[in-house]
C-alpha cells in the first residue's frame, strides 16, 4: 500500500513529471429507464452507460475503480493495448475486484481512437456495466471534423443476464419471436409453389435448424447513449458542420445495421484504427466493434440515426438536429432475416449435394447462386497484387477494380454466397463490407505468418452449447503463442450464427486481401458458413482472453485463454522504460 | 528540489517494486465460474389443466418436470397426475427421478426410478429412456419400465408444435403405452394399453413463462386393458375438454 500511496502523493505534487491522468470510477447499482421499461442494472459513477473516459495518447492513466456492488466486479478496457495484468479479466488478468474494494489500474496509453470499457464479470455487461473511451491522438488526424459525438448502442433487455442465460439453456428459442409460422408457409407456397415450400421446410426440419435463428435474444429495447427510441437521444449541429460520430456497439447479443437517411457517411475509423475513408449509405456493426464516421448535414433539418438489428427484431434510434426537439421520420423495420442453406455451408457432415438441389426456386437466392457460397477461394480471389499496385492517395479510386466481384452483384465476400444475412442498403446504395476496410497507416510491417492456427467455431443451438473446435472453455487447454511470432488465425464458422471474435491485448489484422493495408481490428465478425483469416503479431507477453463477444455464447463456452510465452526481457523492462520516460519529462 | 528528486527516486523504485510484485503473481489460473461447467435449472408445467369429460367426469391434471445440472449431467424430476375432483382420488400419480446424459446431438439418455402411488395398488419401476428432438421438430420421449412385480412396459410420448403465429401455438401430443406382460392388479393387459391424444391451442401471454390454453383430449384403452376397465365399471374411451396453462420458470 505504501508505495502506491507515495506514487499517488507524487502525482499530486508534480503532475507534469509523472504525466499520469487520474480517473475515478465507481461500480454501482443503478436504474435503467429505456422508455419501454425500467430495470435495475449496473452502471458506473451512478449511471448506465458510464461516463465517456477521455484519455490522451502518450499519457499514463491511473484509474481507481471502487466496487460498490455486493459481488465481484472487473473492468476490461476493450481494444486497449496494455500490460496483461491491467486487462481486467478475472481469472486471467487478475483475481477481480471484491465488494467494497478499490482497484487501481495503471497503464500507458499507446494508441488513439474510439474504444469502450465493460465489466468482464458474469453478466454485468448486459446488465449495464459499460462505457465509452475516446483517446485523443498525439499527432494530427487524417480527417477533419467540427464536432463529435459518441453513439453507443446496446440491446437492453427487461430480463437480467442470468435469467436470459438460464432461459436459453432451458429453451433455446425462448426469446425468438420471428419463427416461421403457418402464415409464412402459405405465403411461401404462393410465391414458390407447394412442393418447393414443403421440400424447404423438410430440409430444415431434417437438420433441426431454424431459418429464423439469426438473433438468440429478442425483446430488447435498442438504446443509444442510454436512451430508448422514444427518449430519442439528440446530437445538435450547425448546418454545414462535419460531425464525427463514434459508433460503439456495446450490445450483449445484437448486431445493428445503421443508416442516417439523407446523409452519406464516411467511415474513417474501425475499431479505433484509421482506415482509408469509405463513403457508405449503411453499415453493419458487430457486437463490440466500433466505427467512426463523418457526416455533413447541410440542411437545417433533423436526421434520424436508425439502427435496425440484423434480424430485425428491434431497433435503436437517435437524432441529429439543429435544435433540440426536432425530429425526422423513423423508418419501418424491414422484414425479418431468414438464413439460407448457404449459411449452413460450414456445417460438417451435411449432404451438400441435396442441399444445393433444395435451395433453388424455394429460396430468394436466385437461380445463379448455389452452394459455392462455401467456396472461400472467392475471398482469396481479391487479388492481393492488384491491391498493392493501387494508388492509395486516390481513395475514390479504391473501391473500383479491387472489388469488381463485390460491385457486380453487390454481394459481400465476407458472407456465404447467397447468405440470408447478406446486407443490403435500405436505399439500394453502398453497404460497407469488411473488404472496403484498408488501413490508413499500417501499424505493422507486412510479413509472412510464422504459423497458422485453425479455430473452428462450433456449437449446438438445441443444447445452447458454444465452443471452439468442439471444446468448451471449461474443458479446453490454453492456446499457446510465442512472443515475436506472427500467427495466422483461420476461423471456420461451422454454426449458423455470426460470431464476433475478440482477442484481448494484441491487434487482430483482418485479412481482406489488401496485404500491408489490411485493417487492424480488435473484433472480427465471422459470418455463418464462412472462413475468415486474421493475423496477430504476438507482441505482448502474458495471458489473455480470446472469445466470442456475444455474452451468452462466451458464457456457454466459446472462449479460450491465450498464453504468450517468452517476451522481451519480461514486463519489467517495459515498466522501467515507462518510468524513465515519466522521469525525464 | 533535491528532496523532491529523492522522493521521485523512491517512488520510482517503489513503483518498479510494485510492478515486479504484480508480474510475479502473473499467469494466475482461472478458477472463476467461467472455467466451471455451467449449472442451470428449470421448472416446466407442460400441462396444468382442468378436464371435463363427455361423462361429466372432472379431473385436475398436471404434467411437469424440473431439472438441475450441467450440459453433461442433469437430474430431472418428472411428475404427472390425474386427480378426480368428485371422488377426491388420484386416478394416476407418477413421480420419476432420473439422471440424464447427452448421447447424440439431439438426444439424451435417462435412467432412474418411477413411483406410482395412485388410488389403489402402488408400483415402483426402474426407468430407462431416451428423450430429444427428432427430425421435423418432433419432441420425443421414449421410456422402458420394469416394475417391482417384474412386469415390463414401454411408453412413447411425442409432441409437435404448430406456430399459427409467433404467439398462438397449436400443440399436438400423442402418448402411447404398451405392456409386454399383464399386471392385472393395476388393470394393465398385455399389448397396447392405452393412448392419449391432445390438441391444445395456447397463447404466450408472459414470455414463455405463462401460456393459457384450451383444448381437447382423447383417451382410449385397448385389448385386455379395456376389458379390465369395463369389468371394473370404468370407461374405455373418453373425450375431454381442457382448459389450463403451460408454465415455465
TrEMBL record, chain A:
Single annotated GO MF: oxidoreductase activity
Superkingdom field: Bacteria
PROSITE patterns recorded: MULTICOPPER_OXIDASE1, MULTICOPPER_OXIDASE2
Signal peptide: 1-20
GO cellular component: periplasmic space
Coiled-coil segments on the chain, per record: none
Plastocyanin-like domain: residues covered: 34-138, 221-317, 447-565
PANTHER family registered for this protein in UniProt: FI03373P-RELATED (PTHR11709:SF394), MULTI-COPPER OXIDASE (PTHR11709)
Name under which the protein is recorded: Copper resistance system multicopper oxidase
Organism expressing this protein natively: Marinobacter salinexigens
Species lineage: Bacteria, Pseudomonadati, Pseudomonadota, Gammaproteobacteria, Pseudomonadales
TrEMBL record, chain B:
Any GO CC annotation of this UniProt entry: cell outer membrane
Coiled coil: none
The UniProt record lists the keyword Signal: yes
GO molecular function terms attached to this record: copper ion binding
Signal peptide range: 1-24
GO BP, one annotated term: intracellular copper ion homeostasis
Protein name: Copper resistance protein B
Taxon lineage: Bacteria, Pseudomonadati, Pseudomonadota, Gammaproteobacteria, Pseudomonadales
